Amino acid sequence: MGCSRNCGLIAGAVIGAVLAVFGGILMPVGDMLIQKTIKKEVVLEEGTIAFKNWVKTGTDVYRQFWIFDVQNPDEVAVNSTKIKVKQRGPYTYRVRYLAKENITQDSENHTVSFLQPNGAIFEPSLSVGTENDTFTILNLAVAAAPHLYPNSFVQGILNSLIKKSKSSMFQNRTLKELLWGYTDPFLNLVPYPIATTVGVFYPYNNTADGVYKVFNGKDDISKVAIIDTYKGKKNLLYWSSYCDMINGTDAASFPPFVEKTRILRFFSSDICRSVYAEFAAEMNLKGIPVYRFTLPSLAFASPSENPDNHCFCTEQIISKNCTLYGVLDISKCKEGKPVYISLPHFLHGSPELAEPIEGLSPNEEEHRTYLDVEPITGFTLRFAKRLQINILVKPAKKIEALKNLKHNYIVPILWLNETGTIGDEKAEMFRNQVTGKINLLGLVEIVLLSVGVVMFIAFMISYCACRSKKVN
Predict the structure, then answer these.
(1) For every residue of 279-315, which 3-state class applies, written as one string?
(2) Considering only CA atoms, which of 13, 20, 336, 370 is closest in space to residue 147?
(3) Gap between the Cα atoms of 398 and 146, Å rounded
(4) In sequence order, what are the beta bridge partners of 17?
């Protein structure tokens, strides 16, 4: 009877040890299975989860606009006073709803090239007004004239056309005109062929962003979705390549197994450059653990602080010898137009940027850019891209509309918030196909290991106690 009991206790201990060992073995094996599955599913080729969502996003993406309505246009034009602005918005459009086109796989170089069609659909229910709402804004054509034509003789001719068209430093335009384009009356009088349509995002609808060529990850999963080349906006490829600015992905996804220490680099054609994000916090999005990465203030720092920004310092006066921070001059990829990019309300910008503008209220929570990335797959499940479009306007003695200005202004035109969040249906699918299986496998590993250890310890204690009684 005693021997039988001792044998039972020993057998139980052995079983517990086996379970513990099996659980311990299962952990690295499970990790290998997870990695193998993820590496297969994130490759950008027909049949994978990544490819299906990459061709056409299943997430609704919206671009909201806030327009800076100028309250004192005459005072500014005549007396060069502070520009008083009032933010109006949001005006919301649905974007990125069109599937990628001209998708071509290159099996030799392990890349895939494509075009991303552009489209914007106005969403009245998510907007404070209609596309016909009118704003007082800077006259884009008049402000750009001295930059595009610095010769004083040419400016004199342009001045006569500006006066004849009854154009001034500021103008009234509808939302639709400002964003998507209008025929400018001043440019329409120019006697030689030039583009006469002006708009902050003109042309946009029925155009395509690209051609992009990205690595598909077939040979090296650490390169998946990273941009190889981009042939888009005029002069962008040469300029950005020279400055080593085209790198990273398009921010829709990143190579899998993202660690908190990783710097996530992504390219945005809106600002003609690549930027980067750093880990900020762990989040839970619809039951899915994600890492939040945010755009640091250093991304818009002066070249003296961030050498990567040296390409955006194109002159010494406006940039105050390249010490001005918080704005990037992207005129080189905007055909010379004096366009400056910043964070909304000049967040993280030099104090002198906001000094001549009244009505700005920078706020970190409302105006920062972030990405919520699922760390195992590298998929971006939620994001908010926030940027401000500004135009540099400076005094011009030969142009009457600008001759009374006493200093330069970097005038905010609008800021945008492009957002997207994984939908409930997609989130459930993601939990079932990815995180659910990973969690289940992890749970099995832990249970086997825990039960095995407990059984081993319990039976060994019982065995020792039994032996002790037998001796007594």
Answers:
(1) EEEEEEECCEEEEEEECCHHHHCCCCCCHHHHHHCCC
(2) 336
(3) 9
(4) none
Q: Which two tokens stand for residue 365?
A: 């929570």
Q: What would the two tokens of residue 83 be?
A: 């520009």
If residue 84 lies in a helix (H) or strand (E), which one and from where to where?
strand 83-95
Give the bridge partners for 211, in sequence order. none
When mean pLDDT is compared across 125-134, 234-243, 279-288, 291-300, the lowest value belongs to: 234-243
Instruction: Give the global pTM.
Output: 0.85
Give the model's pLDDT for residue 383: 96
DSSP code, position 100: P
Residue 21 has pLDDT above 70, yes or no: no
- b/e per residue 452-469 (b: at least 16 CB within 10 A): bbebbeebbebbeeeeee
Instruction: Name the β-bridge partners of 340.
Output: 329, 390
Distance CA 237, CA 213 (A): 13
* pLDDT exceeds 50 at position 441: no
Task: Give the DSSP letter of residue 434.
Answer: I
Q: Tell me the three state secondary structure of residue 144.
A: helix
Beta bridge partners of 83: 357
**Count of residues for the chain?**
472
**Helix, strand, or coil here: 57?**
coil
Task: Give pLDDT, residue 189.
Answer: 96
Residue 449 CA to residue 344 CA, distance in Å, equals: 52
So what's the pLDDT on residue 445?
45
The counts of H helices and E strands in the chain are 11, 20
Distance, CA of 228 to CA of 185 (rounded, Å): 42
- Number of CB atoms found within 10 A of residue 222's CB: 11
Tokens of 104: 């071509």
Alpha carbon distance 147, 390 (integer Å): 15
Q: How confident is the model over 87-115, as a mean pLDDT?
A: 95
